[in-house]
Amino acid sequence: MLGVQALGPVMTREAAAQISVEGVAYGAAGGLQPTRGVRVADATAAANLERDAWVVLLSVPGIGPVTFDTLLAAFGSARGVLRAASVASGRAELEDGVAAASGGDAALTRGLGGDLARRICDGTGEGTRILERVRALGLSVVTLEEPDYPERLRRVDMPPPLLFVRGSKASMQSAKSVAVVGTRWPTDKGRLVAGWIGSSLGRAGAVVVSGLAVGIDGAAHAAVVAEGGRTVAVLGGGHARLFPRAHERLADAIVASGGAVVSELQPDTAPSRGTFPRRNRLVSGLSDAVVVVEAGRRSGALITAGWALEQGRECFIVPGALDSATSAGCNAFLRTFPGQARAVCGIAELIEDLELDTVSGTEAESDARARSGAARPDRVGGSAIDPSRGSVLATLSAAERMIAQILTEGPATADDLARRTSLAVATILSALTLLELRGLIAAAGGRYVPAGPLRSWPARARGDSGRAGTRA
Amino acid sequence: MLASLLSATLHGLDGRSVRVEVDVAPGLPGFTIVGLADTALQEARERVRGAIRNSGYEYPPRRITVNLAPADLRKSGASLDLAIALGILVGSEQVAAHGRWAVLGELSLGGDLHPVPGLLPMVAALARRRTGRVVVPLDGLEEARLAGGIEVVPAGTLAEAAVLLREHRRGRQRSRPPRVELAADVVAGAACESGVSAQHEDPGALSAPDLTEVRGQAQARRALELALAGGHCLVMVGPPGSGKTLLARTVPGLLPPLDDDEARLATIIVSVSGVGPVRSLVRTRPFRAPHHTTSYAAMVGGGPFVSPGEVTLAHNGVLFMDELPEFDRATLESLRQPLEDGRVAISRVGRAAVFPSRFQLIGAMNPCPCGHAGEGDGRCHCRPATVERYSDRISGPLRDRIDMWVHMPRVRPEEYVGAATPEDSNTVAARIADAREVQLARNGIPNSRLCGRALRAACALGSAEQSHAIRLAELEGWSARGIERLLRVARTAADLAGSARVESTHLDEAARYRAPFGQVLPEGVM
To answer: Are residues A432 and A340 in the same domain?
Structure first.
């Protein structure tokens, strides 16, 4: 029974069997059988084996980055640790090795005492199951040792040794990566702003990182996906315990549009009170800058912003009104960290501050457009790929245009529209349906929210002939 | 001596005539009632004994046997009290009886006669058997006279009834009393016999608030108008304080009065429900608003006497269910059969009844447990899963039977103070009545009951509208039920607009009233 074949490049069972002769074969009984004396046939295969060993070793309860480093220093590689653990005198060997490596650091030695050695010996028995699980979930693994590991994250203090990735590993290595985070209970305006920022960043070729939570995070992810851009979602739990469940479809869409869903936790880890701060550290660690859209006084988004400052990343805060409970945390953060956190005072300005106009070379943008075209065949061809708001509005009837214009300013109910347009309710409802059919608005509860070209910040419409009419 | 009198008991919404035979025989004093009598009837022994003694008669110290025929019919309630008491008086030769009498009523220990629930159908049942005269409690006189086809004589006490019984019938009407079919001729009979005007209005309608009281909520007002015009089931979703309940309370003032057939049945239902004697024909459409703790049996009917439930009391009217998801799951699911068939069949051991229950359901609910989801102000902290679970309390099959959903946002302050006075109930009620008339003239039923071929024929879409409807079907999730829902509501919108054909704009409007579920998260809509 083999547990080594799955993780990196696609490999057949036979190929895996061939390369496994050198490495570690997980016996049916669960123990590791070292097969010494055979030469390494293939560097890739060796890398795969080492990666598997990392997964197995890090799945042992009680092994965190520090312990892991110590073990690695003592035995040279994760495979070395597993090999040592698998022999009959495994425990003794592990203890000796650790004692030697820690250089007399009493605390560490004690921490790594007999109990941990026993757990490693037990845990390696689970190896096959864990690797099978990772493979069944379609996850790829990146270790700190590999070149695929995101450079930005490598630079933070104690980077997570392992990342479980669904989707594109390359999306974490993009030239520019910006986190957009905020409260799980945003106002309509906040949701809209998050969407504007997300889609503008996506259009500018930046990768948007966020936490896949409901509210601001989800709005930002969704806007990027709608724009055809790439976005990275960092989970607060394992991949098999995707949270929130309501965002399962969004996660699929993120992967389908060339982004990634990432977790540093073992696939079956349940999200809990303790895992979300870790998630936040990863969100800022994967980003060049963090933008907080709305955050109440005790919002987790502020933790992300705090991490960003600690990790030396830029930090942008969208300020809110004085009496806004959902922006109280944002405003307080700006006050607490003058000179470190910057206020966002416009989408175009944010793009400028992030120096994205230079990054957003034609390459990144056309790339994004091609992807968006591929994802939506109905939009391929000519200007239809990214129709400016003005040209879309020009095709609407008078009533529809009136309604669409109001909705670009933010979600509204049918009653709001009736009050502001003085049209008959029946007329408004008919027009809303037509707009919905065209994909320009979406119904959410009793409110209507702009969608498609109406949703994004109309930065590109600058100088557009239709623009004067749209912003009347 | 053996005495025999006619009386009646209630079976579902129907009266059944019962022959009460009383044998007062020598032997050890005793009192036995045979013939499937329920507990209330067994207790009649005590009431009858007291009533006889306190009315100045002698309770015979002999062996009394009461037989209720037919023996296989389960008898319940106190409607036979008077017949048993008079039977004893006749059997003990204290009172002589002449002619073919029927007597109905409950006795108090003091000998007073009280009306019983279901007096109207019971009197009607006796009329069907060509019984010449019936003695009823004085309080129930008006109700009993609604039945027609029978001479109704009131009595206030047992003694009065005994006097009546002793009298010879004077000037007996030779004319054949009209044959009375329950719920068919009641009104005609009532109009000519008792002089009760069929136009007489129930004063209950006056208490409904006027639509001018409802501020803002333009969409919900429109939805309510459409729903009432077409008889569509409507659910209003909105935060607490958005005016859902107030809007629903305006419904009685918006509904057209019952027509003759409906009024007869409604009167019988009110009579059976036992809220007290009916004074006149019920003309206002019922509006029932059961509390959300209402039990399953109270909702569909049942209980020891298989009495009608809320769905039956709302027959031909509106059943308003506030806080819809807070109702018991079983109670909610029990609405499916009546919503589908317009009747509810109830079986209990030894009894079965079918009650009419063609009601229009109007529901109100919060979007989530805290009530603020979808307000867009960050107030709602309910998790998406919680919100979903809350709306999932209304199961798919029940959801399918609801044609219209409407969201009611919180009303903005400027709408309370600044806005012009909205339309009043009379204006809207007139439009609703017109639209209803159009529907009845076209199909004989309201649009909400159209389906299949009749629905397609009534809608008669042009080719452009057809292709448009197909595009709209995508929004409905492509389900056949969704498309039928769309067409029905569009038909009503067209009727309200006075349009013979269903135009695309009507379809577009109808599409807005689809079920909102699965759209709790704006960012999930992609």
So the answer is: no
